[in-house]
Give the backbone structure.
Amino acid sequence: MLLRPSVRNRLFEFTPNLQVLLVGQDQRSLGALIVLDVNELSRAGYITPETGNKLLAYIGGSTSPGLATGSALFGTVSEGLNTNEELKSRILGDISKVRS
């Protein structure tokens, strides 16, 4: 079930430049798959600009030398972001603003 555009738009007011899939409107709980923007992560200091460039090359399908380990880099960066309490707090704070 898709969410009303007003709910989705409110989330983007607080956290721009992301992709989000929300499910569960009119249900007891709401779920979200959130894809953060690599450039925004770099600008905010959650990843280095060098790491951001490597990720963008990997995501874009670049065959540049050294990107054979792009999948491993992606996994390492994902793990680091998933355990970053500051980032989690920021995202959850933005979600709670939308819910209120």
In short: Strands lie at 18-23, 31-36. The chain has a mean pLDDT of 77. The longest strand covers residues 18-23.
